[in-house]
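The protein record passed on below.

***
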Amino acid sequence: MRSTDTGPDTTSGELTIVGHRGAMTHALENTLASFQRAEQLGCQELELDLRRSADDRLVVIHDATLDRLAADEDGRGLGPVADRTLEELQQVPLRDGHRLHTFEEVCAATTANLEVEIKDPAVVPLLAGFLETRPEVVRRMRLTSFHADALVQARELLPQIPRGMIVHRLPVTEKHPEGLDALLERTGASALLCGWEGLTAEAVAAQHAAGRRVHGWPLRTAEQMAHAVVIGVDGTTVDDPQAAFEWYRQVLAAQG
């Protein structure tokens, strides 16, 4: 029996395959093309990264700078995204003819549920303002972060949106001395998103018993898919949805 929460439910008892920054093996990550391709491939949930621009616009990008995504040297070395206005950022050509997108653009261009990772805690109050008049977006969302303080702030400003705590591995005491249970209680997390190291069937079962969902990440091989099914996670984040869905079908077929 898989655990449930108050957030968007896409599992129907099956593994939720979440498009990591869209379908980033098929199109440049965190672009409309990548998100739409992930939807075309069957993803009912999309993971994206949220930062702020200098003029307090919500922009969808993983890194703190444009350097890795820029089409040429002119777009590199411009400094943090947070120090540039949206107009300045969108004037920078990205690889394969893309440009930076706002969260508003992504919401309008997609229909899947959204796993929104807060990369910069300063995003939370801006996001709260953005969502005040957008209940249709709220219903599609789960907020996630590596930053516990961002989730604590979201718990106060956006209590209607479920939260997921991201950790690299179990146990968590090296980074979070309070321990996993206290961390999840403090953030009010209804989901744990955990790297594969230390994530066992027993750990998943313990979170299910507490009423939380568990996602394992990242999933990049058929062997990891088989492991995900065996330990009973509720979902996983994938770079290549097309391959991931095929691996999932193969695992289910092998189980009979």
Residues 1-6 have pLDDT under 50 and may be disordered. The CA atoms of residues 218 and 237 lie 5 Å apart. The longest strand covers residues 45-52.
